[in-house]
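Task: encode each sequence below as structure tokens.

Item 1
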Amino acid sequence: MTLAIFDLDNTLIAGDSDHLWGEYLCSQGMVDKSSFHAANEGFYADYQRGELDIEAYLAFALAPLAGRSLDSLTALQAGFIRDCIEPILLPAAAELIQSHRDRGDRILIITATNEFVTRPIAALLGIEELLGCAVEITDGVLTGRATGTLTYREGKVQRLTEWLAREEEVMDGAWFYSDSHNDLPLLEIVDNPVIVDPDDRLAQIGSERGWRQISLRD
């Protein structure tokens, strides 16, 4: 069995679920639209430059959920999936996932977006195994805090290493698909790095290193 590891945002879907979630909260009146939108845009620009303070971002992104039960947020999650995620699903991504499944590969998503947002997306894609920024939940209520190793940049490698040990899994022949230069630490350690509709920086680095490049949007 070989691992097929996927980034999520702008790789398997044609957009960034973290950023879209922030905009969805604005549209639902759960936050002050003007100030929250401005901050959301600023954090997204930081991410694109590779300068994101992931702890500060998660504190910002999770604050509107603090004190709310998981049960009370089910309808909000469903609306987000319907309105924001289903329109940006990529048929070619589904075909790629199925091709690995047909080969008997073990499929894993690893994303810097928090698991509250991304677990329903992974389920929509038919993928059970997900590593994202973990959200602290106490007695069924979200605290508004992240917990554990954050799956951003080198944190993706650390969380994956922990997962490999726990699952008694190996990286031999592993694939990793990503669009972002933020994922270079993980791209550099897999046998089969594949860049997918990459940002400009990753496209240049991938070209220099001879990495395979594909598009799931054509």
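Item 2
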Amino acid sequence: MTLPEEDSDTSRALGGLDSDSSSTRLRAALAVGTAPDPRSVGALVERCAVEPEFLVRDMLTWALTRHSPSTTVPRLIAELRSERPQARSQALHTLSKIGDRRAWPAITRALLADPDDEVARSAWRAAVVLVPEGQEEGLAEILSTQLGRGGHETRRSLSRALVALGEVAVPALRAATEATDAEPGAREHAIATERLYRDPEAGFTFAIEEAKRIMVLGRPEQEGGG
């Protein structure tokens, strides 16, 4: 039996996703996204889990956003249970790009505290996009438990997520700065994040340096105006 022309085109594009050539895989993802077919979703999601090239992963995500959320979201949610960190990270990243809040219940505390930094960072970004109105403060409290985690990029990602939540994040940040049993790194990170919220143009590196100064000298109101 001869396949319809559109089926043949889809099959060829999907076959290209497994090519050894990254440029071929990039073109294949572009082709699948240009002509969305719900039968392609599974293959796109599976490729996201193993694709080594950032540009190709980005194109795979774009291709998935071109499909109906009713098809993509359930498949991506299922991927959040994968043992592969990249599978979880890419699924979260794609869910944040789709922006369908029906995915919110799948953004669990476990994902927000995932031991893999890339997964956690993707979960923070997705959570900020998908959190329902009225639940932002609770999310900020959960995110604040991750203050002081990881290196510079991980901490910057968390600060950006908390700043994006707006004023509702300030009480959680203030509590973290005033907690007597908090790790110094967590307090420093909380101070820097609050500074970044007050002055987004300052930049994270500057905010961290300011936080270090405050950690040594005390909070501004305790410095006697000096």
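Check on item 2: DSSP finds 13 helices and no strands in the chain. The radius of gyration is 21 Å.
End of task.
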